[in-house]
Amino acid sequence: MENKEDGLIKLTGLWEKKGKTGVYFKGKLGYLDLLIFENRYKSSVQDPDYNLYLARPGKKEESKDHDDDIEPF
């Protein structure tokens, strides 16, 4: 829903989860799973702090230890 005061549109909610290598966030956007992981490969200030992924529904996000394990749709 759009917040008329600030012009923001809410897409979904996120839930904090604990995985093997730390905390991540999970939500849904339609039938796709949204996953937000800390960027553990950050090497400069220009690199993002977090990365957002879209995953196929039903994939086990708990087994995803790092960016290389994400299977894009």
SS element count, helices: 0
**Helical content band:** under 10%
How far from one another are the termini? 27 Å
- The outline comes out as globular
Strand content: 35-45%
Molecular structure report:
This protein is an all-beta fold and 73 residues long. The chain has one domain (2-69). It is built from no helices and six strands. The chain has strands spanning 2-3, 8-9, 15-19, 22-29, 32-38, 50-55. A four-stranded antiparallel beta sheet has the order 3-4-5-6, with no helix packed on it. A two-stranded antiparallel sheet has the order 1-2. A hairpin with a 2-residue loop joins strand 4 and strand 5 (32-38). The model has no long low-confidence stretch (mean pLDDT 83).
Summary tags:
single chain, 73 residues, mainly beta, 6 strands, 0% helix
What's the short version?
The chain is mainly β and 73 residues long.
Write the layout of secondary structure elements.
Blueprint: E1 2-3, E2 8-9, E3 15-19, E4 22-29, E5 32-38, E6 50-55
Antiparallel strand pairs: 1-2, 3-4, 4-5, 5-6
